[in-house]
Amino acid sequence: MLELRSVSKTYGSGAGVTPAIGEVSLTVRPGEFLTVVGPSGCGKTTLLKCMTGLLRPTSGEVLLDGRPVTGPPADMALVFQEYGRSLMPWSTVRKNIMLPLRARRVPRPERERRADEALAEVGLAGFADHYPWQLSGGMQQRVAIARALAYRPRILVMDEPFASVDAQTRADLEDLVLRIREAHDITIVFVTHDIDESVYLSDRIAVLGPSPTSVRELVEVDLPSPRDQVATKRLAEFGELRTHVYRRIRRDEAGSPPGVASTAAPAPGSAGEDAERVGSAS
Amino acid sequence: MTGRWLRVTLPVVTTVAVLAAWWFGSLGTESYYFPSLRAIMDRFVEVWLFDRFVTDALPSLWRLGAGFGIAVVAGVGLGLLLGLSASWRRATEPIVEFLRAIPATALLPFALLVFGIGDLMKVAIIALVCLWPVLLNTIDGVRGLDHTLADTARMYQVSGARRLLSVVLPSAAPQIMAGARTSLSLALILMVTSEMVASTSGIGFFVLDAQRGFRILDMWTGIILLGVLGYLVNLVFTLVERRLLRWHAGARADTASAR
Amino acid sequence: MTPPTTTTRPEHAGPGTRDGRSGRPRLPGAALPAVTVLGVLLLAELVSRLGVLPTRYFPPASEMFVALAGQVVDPSFWVSVGQTLQGWGAGLGIAVLLAVPVGLALGTVPLLYTAVRPIVEFLRPIPSVALIPLVVLAIGTGAASKVFLAAFAAFWQLLIPVIYGVRDTDPVARDTGRAFRLGRFGVLRWIVLPAAVPYLATGLRIASATALILAVTAELVIGVPGLGGAINLARSAGAPDRMYALIIATGLLGWGLNAALRAVERRVLHWHPSHREAAA
């Protein structure tokens, strides 16, 4: 459904040109939970912005159901890492959730029903009339997730959504996302720099190399469902997957400096359209 | 405990002390230019409650309100346009920079020449001068829109008028209010000055007329009335601002305590 | 007017977050502003020449600039400029000399601030021009009146920022100073004052604009010699071209003073992380 074809992005022009993402090709399968994991500063956010249509790639294209994405598609929602800046401090929680629905001209009773449902689903039923800044960080991110849910997207994209909340809250939110995924027919693309998180959550992991980034390997995750914070993480396969992803990222980090073509070969066991070589010329 | 008690009582004590010192210190004064507060207050009641209030204070306030109101509406409207469009902003920048640098009252002769000496002149000059702080602060506020919030709006297909009203304007509101506050003090200055330069009514006219006719008590009552009005107008503004920006104070307190 | 707004601008996201939106070709550099300025001047010229607006009120732009050129070579114009600048400078200087020590005192001694706060809060919003009649009686119609009015108005614009700045001093920095036994004066000199400087700088810019307004107002209303009086004289003498020329000159003066203060501010405050330009 969502397909990235040799997407690359460079900033600046002329002599000051800096590549942010190399050449990324990736296909998101319908209904899957795909995490994109990579070292800090490798261009994950840029990649995600290209994927959601917030940024135009310098070359290559993003296709949704075969049609090129030129702006944010109507059936895609995005949950930002900076929940504090993505929610509007002047509106109550309910109004924050309803604004996208108002823009879509959803009738008012329907808007309110959807907002209340979404809030109940993320466990914030009693907080509709609070302001975002009256809530803790974890609760604010729940509001952002509720806003995405009420929007009823086919694809939910999440940009390191739990990077700035504490460990316990983070585990709760991870399970919340898994529950949401079970309850709705929804495709999730989840960007993170946390390897444990990526293995725990996903059906498939796209491992990115350092900047200018490209997909180094696509790892299938065959852990049993439903996942459980204790039981799943105790499985031997979990540990193996984690070690595998970790090694892939470390090796790439120690590799060639940015801008120089990396020659890392596709790893055995990686799936189809992975491991593109980085085009060093722009 | 004592600290809190002091914080409440001390301002009251000093205010009362200053007023009492003025009242009693000036009781037996022989000075022609600085009459006793008691005499001023007696005269104040005679003059301003309520004959002159209707003929002079109300016209002043109406000019102030009309000019300030026009400036805010026009400043926010133009500011949105210039804040959202880089080309428009670049095109108009030198003109805006120059016009707002003109010391407000230097435009009075121009207003007199073009609009005559009626109410239109006063409203026009107040509006013209008050426009710039609102306009520039609105531009700044619009441009200061958080990138994440802008991306959020794009992502959720919030665009056009809805984006303007629900995202851009509220986010710029704290800056717009800061500009409006600057404009308000300019409006008061222009209200008084325009009435002093050319008018047959208004508090500014009354005060200067009293001074020229050596009606010293009248003059003092007018100055005190201007002081009280200035204070009250600012108070009303502060209350409106606090109401409009309640979320802002809360959000700021929150980020401050988080650090 | 107000203390400088202390709302912090949200820092920008990464470089080029807005890339990919610049579609249309643009006029290079200064071309666009230059085109609009010329366009506006041309429009003003045409509107007047074609009689759309009465020439009596709106002389052609070219005539305004001819008059401006005439003023620039006229020594009496420079005398007026000097008189206005004198009122501005003296008033602003006195305001600084008074507002800084008073602000430091009120800012560092909370009890004192609590005591005088209602008086400050009441005096501050009084439009300073309301004092003009009283000033005329008590001081007269000379240059001293102009200086007094400019100083009075500028004082409040400076006092409030200084108090805010002093109170905004990082308590950790203050404690550090105490731990190093800087002494009361040392803390004031090395920690409190530098922290208040950015506030003072913004306040100074606003106070400068206010002082100029009051100087011009005094010239206009009281008749103290200077640019304000010259503008009004040109109007009553039926010389609109000269009136506009003088208004333009006054605007350039205000613009120049503001630009000069900004330049000084940038040099002095280049270190300050939160230093930003407040539009006021």
Largest sheet of chain C: none
Which stretches of chain C are low in confidence, meaning pLDDT under 50 for 5 or more residues running?
1-25, 274-280
Range of helix content of chain A: 25-40%
CATH architectural arrangement of the largest domain in chain A: 3-Layer(aba) Sandwich
Structural class of chain A: alpha/beta
Outline type of chain A: globular
Q: CATH topology of chain C, which one?
A: MetI-like fold
Overall number of domains of chain C: 1
Helix content of chain C: over 70%
Count helical runs of chain A: 9
Strand content of chain C: under 5%
Structural class of the secondary structure composition of chain C? mainly alpha
Q: What is the level-2 CATH architecture name of chain C?
A: Orthogonal Bundle
Total beta-strand segments of chain C:
0
First-to-last CA distance of chain A = 28 Å
- The gross shape of chain C turns out to be elongated
Would you kindly provide a brief summary of this structure?
By secondary structure, chain A is an alpha/beta fold. Chain A has helices spanning 44-51, 83-86, 93-103, 108-121, 137-150, 167-183, 195-201, 231-234, 236-253, and strands at residues 2-11, 18-28, 33-37, 59-64, 67-68, 76-79, 155-159, 187-192, 204-208, 215-220.
Describe the structure in your own words.
The complex is a heterotrimer of chains A (282), B (259) and C (280). Chain A is of the alpha/beta class. Chain A folds into 2 domains: 1-75 and 154-282, Rossmann fold; 87-152, no CATH class. Helices cover 34% and strands 21% of the residues of chain A. In chain A, α7 (195-201) crosses α9 (236-253). Chain B contains 11 helices and no strands. The mean pLDDT of chain B is 89. By secondary structure, chain B is an all-alpha fold. Chain B has one domain (37-246): MetI-like fold, CATH 1.10.3720. Chain C has one domain (55-268): MetI-like (MetI-like fold, Orthogonal Bundle). Chain C contains 10 helices and no strands. In chain C, α3 runs parallel beside α6 (143-167), α3 (75-108) runs antiparallel to α8 and α8 packs parallel to α9 (227-236). Classes of the chains: A alpha/beta (282), B mainly alpha (259), C mainly alpha (280). Chains in contact: A-B, A-C, B-C. At the B-C interface, α1, α4, α5, α6 and α8 of B face α1, α4, α5, α8 and α9 of C.
